[in-house]
């Protein structure tokens, strides 16, 4: 199955119409009742922020994807060589239906939605990104999470022939991430298969990546090939590299500084040299939705 068939959303949301909807919301365009526009009016989902998204250019040219190098421009430069079709995802561990699932099966029956999320990187910059994706919970429910499962572990593809950054051993490949089960099941947590109404650009984690909007961007692991339900907190790449700087939770928290810099404010990419700095919000602005997950925890300890 081709990516295009999987991403049905792109058929109904061509970018021009998507932009029309944004303009409509901004009051900048006259109301024109075309069928296409009506369908787009059904999106984005209720979980979206109403902040103005960054441009496709910003979103696809300023990336972190160390499999392709450490420069922000490396993913755009080198990720085009990654083969993303065919693609399969191993789902294993404490699940009723473990297996190697073709990407089409992973996406099958999961309602694709547009979700415009704030994205906050630990390096204190941010963007707003219109993802196309579906709730991770939908997939986990379909494969059947067993009672002993407490965490979900994720792994990215290892393919040094196509991922030039993997020739450097500074990260112990594969790139790994993890969530507690309640975080994974939260409706804000999505697996994204596209953005701006189109299939996921390779540099953003094609063909399928995690997006957890209340956590720093590095939790949102790209190009996923394995999802494991486990009973213990799994190792995660940045925690393995530098445990004093990157904890397991990595919730966006303006009150807990990174040991080497403040996390109290952020620079919105694309907002211009002088207009871009803004206060960082607790849980990246998703406090009402997620604070209850951590009610019992000291977030200065569980950072
Ligand atoms: N996933 C993999 N496999 N490899 C990476 O290097 N970088 C993370 C995260 N996911 C990374 C990854 C970091 S540090 C960030 S900030 C985001 O991806 C960047 O996502 P974006 O390029 O789509 O904005």
Q: Gap between N and C termini, in Å?
A: 41 Å
- Principal-axis shape equals globular
Tell me the domain tally.
1
CATH architecture: Alpha-Beta Complex
H-E string: HHHHHHEEHEEHEEHEEEEHEEH
Largest sheet: 7 strands, mixed
Structural class: alpha+beta
| Helix content percent band | 10-25%
The small-molecule ligands in this entry are: ligand MTE
Helix count from the secondary structure assignment: 11
Count of strand segments? 12
* CATH H-tier superfamily: Oxidoreductase, molybdopterin-binding domain
Beta-strand content bin: 15-25%
Description:
The protein is an alpha+beta fold and 303 residues long. It has one domain (3-286): Alpha-Beta Complex (Sulfite Oxidase, Chain A, domain 2). 21% of the residues lie in helices and 21% in strands. It is built from 11 helices and 12 strands. The protein has helices spanning 3-6, 8-12, 15-25, 35-41, 56-61, 74-78, 103-107, 136-143, 181-185, 237-241, 287-290; strands at 88-93, 99-102, 113-120, 125-135, 151-156, 176-180, 190-195, 198-199, 209-211, 224-230, 265-268, 277-279. Strands 3, 4, 7, 8, 9, 11 and 12 form a 7-stranded mixed sheet that branches. A hairpin with an 8-residue loop joins β11 (265-268) and β12. The radius of gyration is 19 Å and the shape is globular. The model is unreliable at 1-42 (pLDDT under 50). Ligand MTE is lined by residues 63-67, 121, 156, 175, 204-205, 217-218, 220-223.
Brief overview, please?
The chain has 303 residues and is α+β, with helices and mostly antiparallel strands. The protein has helices at residues 3-6, 8-12, 15-25, 35-41, 56-61, 74-78, 103-107, 136-143, 181-185, 237-241, 287-290, and strands at 88-93, 99-102, 113-120, 125-135, 151-156, 176-180, 190-195, 198-199, 209-211, 224-230, 265-268, 277-279.
């Amino acid at each position: 199955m081709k990516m295009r068939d999987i991403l049905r959303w792109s058929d109904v949301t061509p970018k021009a119409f998507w932009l029309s909807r944004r303009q409509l919301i901004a009051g900048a365009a006259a109301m024109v009742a075309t069928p296409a526009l009506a369908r787009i009016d059904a999106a984005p989902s209720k979980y979206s922020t109403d902040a103005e998204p960054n441009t496709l250019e910003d979103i696809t040219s300023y990336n972190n994807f160390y499999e392709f190098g450490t420069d922000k421009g490396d993913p755009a430069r080198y990720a085009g060589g990654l083969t993303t079709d065919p693609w399969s995802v191993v789902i294993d561990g404490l699940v009723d239906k473990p297996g190697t699932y073709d990407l089409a099966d992973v996406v099958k029956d999961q309602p694709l939605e547009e979700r415009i999320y704030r994205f906050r990187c630990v390096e204190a910059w941010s963007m707003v990104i219109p993802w196309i994706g579906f709730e991770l919970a939908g997939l986990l429910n379909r494969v059947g999470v067993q009672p002993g499962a407490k965490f979900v572990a994720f792994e990215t593809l290892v393919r040094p022939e196509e991922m030039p950054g993997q020739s450097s051993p500074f990260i112990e490949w594969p790139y790994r991430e993890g969530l507690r089960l309640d975080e994974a099941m939260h409706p804000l947590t999505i697996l994204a298969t596209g953005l701006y109404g189109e299939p996921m650009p390779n540099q953003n984690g094609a063909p399928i990546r995690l997006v957890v909007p209340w956590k720093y961007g590095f939790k949102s692991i790209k190009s996923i090939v394995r999802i494991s339900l486990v009973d213990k907190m799994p190792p995660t790449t940045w925690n393995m590299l530098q445990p004093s700087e990157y904890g397991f939770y990595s919730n966006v928290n303006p009150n807990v500084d990174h040991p080497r810099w403040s996390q109290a404010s952020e620079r919105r990419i694309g907002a211009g040299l002088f207009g871009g700095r803004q206060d960082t919000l607790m849980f990246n602005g998703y406090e009402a939705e997620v604070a209850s997950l951590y009610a019992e925890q000291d977030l200065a300890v569980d950072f």
